[in-house]
């Protein structure tokens, strides 16, 4: 059975009631009229489609359709430290009566619909404070496995989506020059420890020498530590007048990251290529390369 084209909606048909059309009201009306349910379902679908096309972002009817769209200025790449709450933001314009959902692509898992959470993992929550256009997916205590692509989806037909990539990073400790450096006797040992991807600067950093905490006011003297805290925290261990007994394993121990070690070799008159002290060792290495270069040139003459 064929039907006439969808009836046009007159202004007076909408002015009496600006509320969104309710399919249950149409169902109730169908049961108390002579029209068949099939006819009423057809008319209701027409009315719903017409009303959606004439409704703008303020819930008011206008002469032209206002489709929802994403604010492209929102970041599509988010980096979050391990364990620190992550926020993935999705800004939607002209949402009107549509719904925003969040989907995790790793396992095609529906996380939230509107402000409701649809997963048993209560670390996930959708945040929206009307009249804000921001729909933010909150992930508490993020783990490395939470890294990946998340989809912010609008309930249009077909769906409109924006994808955000989350990278959860673990705090990392590095020592410049590791795993070992060579120091000329009498020079200054300068060890630099760097703490990366930390949710906040470490409350302290200890330096160990052969598994013993270094005392900065020991009788040896000439030992100093300079620490600069920030997004990237650096700690410099300075030991003046290097001695043979300063040989050994040095370890940087931040309060909120894994320790990192380096082996220090204090040499007496030897100059390996790996020496930290650049003076005579660098000069001798350069001189050796020059001799090899000229020898090769002579062989080809």
TrEMBL record:
Lineage, opening ranks: Eukaryota, Metazoa, Ecdysozoa, Arthropoda, Hexapoda
Record SUPFAM superfamilies: Immunoglobulin (SSF48726)
Domain named Ig-like: residues: 68-155, 171-263
An example Gene Ontology CC term for this record: neuron projection membrane
Coiled-coil regions, chain positions: none
Organism of derivation: Cinara cedri
Protein name in the entry: Immunoglobulin V-set domain,Immunoglobulin subtype,Immunoglobulin-like domain,Immunoglobulin-like
An individual GO BP term: synapse organization
């Amino acid at each position: 059975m064929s039907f006439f084209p969808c009836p046009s909606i007159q202004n007076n048909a909408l002015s009496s009631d600006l509320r969104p059309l309710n399919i249950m009201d149409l169902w109730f009306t169908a049961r108390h009229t002579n029209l068949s349910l099939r006819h009423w379902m057809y008319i209701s679908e027409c009315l719903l489609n017409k009303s959606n096309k004439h409704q703008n972002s303020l819930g008011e009817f206008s002469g032209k359709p206002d489709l929802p769209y994403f604010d492209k200025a929102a970041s599509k790449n988010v980096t979050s430290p391990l364990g620190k709450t992550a926020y993935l933001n999705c800004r939607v314009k002209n949402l009107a009566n549509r719904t925003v959902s969040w989907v995790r692509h790793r396992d095609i898992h529906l996380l939230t619909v509107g402000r409701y959470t649809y997963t048993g993992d209560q670390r996930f929550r959708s945040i929206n404070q009307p009249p804000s256009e921001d729909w933010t997916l909150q992930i508490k205590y993020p783990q490395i496995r939470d890294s990946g692509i998340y989809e912010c989806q609008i309930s249009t037909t077909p769906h409109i989506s924006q994808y955000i990539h989350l990278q959860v990073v673990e705090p990392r400790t590095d020592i410049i020059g590791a795993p070992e450096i060579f120091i000329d006797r009498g020079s200054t040992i300068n060890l630099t420890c760097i703490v990366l991807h930390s949710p906040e600067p470490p409350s302290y950093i200890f330096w160990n020498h052969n598994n013993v905490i270094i005392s900065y006011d020991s009788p040896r003297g000439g030992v100093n530590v300079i620490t600069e805290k920030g997004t990237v925290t650096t700690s410099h261990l300075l030991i003046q007048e290097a001695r043979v007994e300063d040989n050994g394993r040095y370890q940087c121990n931040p309060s909120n990251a894994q320790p990192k070690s380096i082996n220090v070799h204090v040499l007496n008159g030897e100059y390996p290529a790996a020496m930290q002290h650049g003076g005579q060792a660098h000069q001798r290495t350069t001189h050796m390369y020059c001799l090899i270069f000229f020898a090769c040139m002579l062989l080809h003459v």
